[in-house]
Sequence to fold (276 residues):
Amino acid sequence: MTDLSRLCIHMVTLNERCDFGAAVDCLARNGVMQTAPWVAKVDEIGVSAARKLLDDAGVSAVSLAPGAGLTGIGEEAGRAGIDENRRLIDMAAELGAASLVTLTGGLPEGDHDLDGARKRAFDRLAELAPHARAAGVRLALEPLHPMVCGFRSVICSVSEANDWLDQLDAPDVFGIAIDSYAVWWEGGLAGEIERAGERIANVHISDWLRDTSDVRLDRGMMGDGIIDNRLFCRRIDATGFSGPIEVEIFSARNWWQRDPDEVVETIKTRFAEHVL
Ligand code: ZN
Fold:
């Protein structure tokens, strides 16, 4: 029988057809016992109800996603980003998740100063460290594809994430979430994965469709696109990583519309064929 013990399916993969409880039930009945709760789904029912649903089903939370942006301009916007991330760190701890998938955010509306946005995000990340340390939650910084630099993440490569973590110099708090969809294009990726080493907190996979219609919301199922997810995962495993491999598919017009049991069954099959 195929060993699916490392398989984790992000709750957002079942985004449109399942609320929190339905997603947990669907995963459990299909034998997938790990998920990454999606903040909006937790907020719909409250964190203690969410934790109870996980516990009752025997499904564990690997990480919580996504963190809030940190690039807002000015004291008030900066404070709001920090406060929201503190709330999400506490939420992750309450769900039993080891990490919060942390995004810098993009450029605020009307802003053209990319260096300034990067600096604000960096400084505010540093400010979050004590809270995360006290909560026992790792901040897994996730670089995203450059096409979403403007509105999701002002860092776009594992190389940049490694540089930031060198400078933040708090290995007990900061890690990296490496998503094959976000960084498959990166020159020198193998070397940057090796350099990340023990920083690797989370591993996300899906596929890049050659003729994608939306770089954010048209992710493909493993095997349908051009990413070699098996090679990607083996490179990560070579660093000593042995944690969950998390399937995260944003697919507004395809997978999100399908029957959730069909989606999970397809992921299990593709995971065996294209990842293990
Ligand atoms: Zn991701």
Summary: Strands lie at 7-10, 34-36, 60-61, 63-64, 99-102, 138-141, 174-179, 200-205, 245-247.
